[in-house]
Amino acid sequence: MNLSCSQWQDNSESVKHFAFAKFSAAAEQCLLLFTLILLMFLASLTGNALIALAICTNPTLHTPMYFFLANLSLLEIGYTCSVIPKMLQSLVSEARGISREGCATQMFFFTLFAISECCLLAAMAFDRYMAICSPLHYGTRMSRGLCAQLAVVSWAVGCVVGLGQTNYIFSLNFCGPCEIDHFFCDLPPILALACGDTSRNEAAVFVVAVLCISSPFLLIIASYGRILAAVLIMPSPEGRRKALSTCSSHLLVVTLFYGSGSVTYLRPKASHSPGTDKLLALFYTAVTSMLNPIIYSLRNKEVKAALWRTLWKKALTRG
Q1: Counting Cβ atoms within 10 Å, is residue 167 exposed (0-12), middle (13-18) or buried (19+)?
Q2: For residue 76, which of 122, 37, 113, 120 has the smallest C-alpha distance?
Q3: What pLDDT digit, counting tens, does each position of 254-297 carry?
Q4: Are the CB atoms for 34 and 88 separated by under 8 Å?
């Protein structure tokens, strides 16, 4: 496949097609990376799908905490499916091209799922705050209606931000080169290909990142600050252990997700490098999505029991 922009660009028109940069000239390295990412992708899909299925089919898990966890699993499935299949194709095929419309679509869905997850993690922290700091009123305040509203708002914010950012960036002209030095159509590498002054677009990306990453994160910090204060005054060591146990999985997932996202989108532009950005992208698109179901299933007895019941029912049905 010829990656020259000349075949996709007429005179002064904006580039209509892009191509992802080849990871390595060595076919063995590309094949190894393809295998690793494919295994992580399959593990992520399987783990998240099983958790969502177990929660939906087990009435004992029809509580706010597990409702949000099911939504998180669905977001992770969408998150990885929006990026990794094309990434895998680019690693082992010369067909590394993507149309302008296809790139915009990938960016929209990636942004939608990423921003929605930021908001949902904040909603999950609020749920834990209500459960631990206001247990007597938890059942009435965290009603099904409120939980549904929080989930809808999370998805809606992701949709609005995804549409806004994608439309703003793809309203620009792209004069070339047409090669995206990345695995997928992420915002910074696409902006790097735009013509003229992109400082306003870069500022918009940074502001949205601050608002949609930092604001939910501050809400999470505030929730866990109140939780910690409540746990410290609990008279029972068993009560403290149980309270911290219900929060530990969520805290670990928050650390992985926000840690990689903050380093990627909030660090100064001068410190960006294609190699580092690719490594971070691989981490937050493949590794964290694979680890999340493992974290929740290993550290939560109710989820483990529900998973075993779901798998047992499947085995009996096939038998």
Answers
A1: exposed
A2: 113
A3: 888 887 777 776 666 666 666 677 777 788 788 888 888 888 77
A4: yes
Residue-level pLDDT at 4: 42
DSSP classification of residue 5: G
Closest C-alpha to 54, from 316, 308, 318: 308
Q: Please, what is the average pLDDT of the chain?
A: 83
Q: Given this model, what pLDDT does residue 284 score? A: 77
274-301 in b/e form (b: 16+ CB < 10 A) is eeebbebbbbbbbbbbbbbbebbbeebe
User: Is residue 180 within a helix (H) or strand (E), and if so which, with residue range?
Assistant: strand 179-180
Three-state SS for 15-36 is: CCEEEECCCCCCHHHHHHHHHH
pTM higher than 0.70:
yes
* CA angle 283–244–218, rounded 5-degree value: 55
Span of 65-74, 157-166, 231-240, 259-268 with lowest mean pLDDT: 259-268
Residues 6+ apart with CB under 8 A from 80: 41, 44, 45, 285, 286, 289
Count of CA atoms in the C-beta half-sphere (13 A) of 44: 28
Cis amide linkage into residue 177, ω under 30° from 0: yes
- Residues constituting the chain: 319
Helix (H, G, I), strand (E, B) or coil at 100: helix
